[in-house]
Amino acid sequence: MSGLEARLLAAHAAGDGKAMVALYCEAACVAPSEDERAFFLTQAHVFAMETAHPDAARLRDTLVEMGRETPL
Length: 72
Description:
The chain has helices at about 5-15, 15-30, 35-50, 55-65. By secondary structure, it is mainly α. The protein has one domain (about 5-65). The model has no long low-confidence stretch (mean pLDDT about 95).
């Protein structure tokens, strides 16, 4: 298990949504494929919306640019 994976699991176990936003963004940065990057950014966006995180709009915009979210 990687350090990032361990930190993600710990954040999930603790219910720390704000940490999950940061960790899923970190995972997206090192994802080996565009599909995996989109998956991690989607997870980050979900937790950002749930926690009223200030990066929620930016994450959505990125997903729109990637063609993974519909523009409003």
